[in-house]
Amino acid sequence: MLNHIHHAAIICSNYERSRHFYVELLGLPVIHESYRAERDSYKLDLQIGESQIELFSFPDPPARTNAPEAAGLRHLAFAVEDVDAAAHWLQNKGIEVEPVRIDPVTGRKYTFFKDPDGLPLELYGQ
């Protein structure tokens, strides 16, 4: 019954800063962008492969809990052909990337970086 993940939704604290990060730095194509005056909120739909990221802004959203093991969505993982090359690409854009590691179960490379609000994002080798 469930086919694939259609989208993941992210609420950001600063729309312009996050829009720049996801569109200009990560290069995700914009599908649709709208401003909802009644909610004082932007909604930006971004393409990532066959899935989407919905980027929302709301006035004064509560801060994300800082505990990495807190209940809830832990991180988003992006599949990449070459983790080392993708990590260098991010670093060349001024994005801090953790050292590349090896998944002990799959033997694949992976690493983490963060969006402007500290949301953990992962690069995972295919």
TrEMBL record:
<dbReference type="InterPro" id="IPR029068">
    <property type="entry name" value="Glyas_Bleomycin-R_OHBP_Dase"/>
</dbReference>
<dbReference type="InterPro" id="IPR051332">
    <property type="entry name" value="Fosfomycin_Res_Enzymes"/>
</dbReference>
<feature type="domain" description="VOC">
    <location>
        <begin position="4"/>
        <end position="126"/>
    </location>
</feature>
<dbReference type="InterPro" id="IPR037478">
    <property type="entry name" value="YwkD-like_dom"/>
</dbReference>
<dbReference type="InterPro" id="IPR037523">
    <property type="entry name" value="VOC_core"/>
</dbReference>
<dbReference type="InterPro" id="IPR004360">
    <property type="entry name" value="Glyas_Fos-R_dOase_dom"/>
</dbReference>
<dbReference type="GO" id="GO:0046872">
    <property type="term" value="F:metal ion binding"/>
</dbReference>
<keyword id="KW-0479">Metal-binding</keyword>
<protein>
    <submittedName>
        <fullName>VOC family protein</fullName>
    </submittedName>
</protein>
<dbReference type="Pfam" id="PF00903">
    <property type="entry name" value="Glyoxalase"/>
</dbReference>
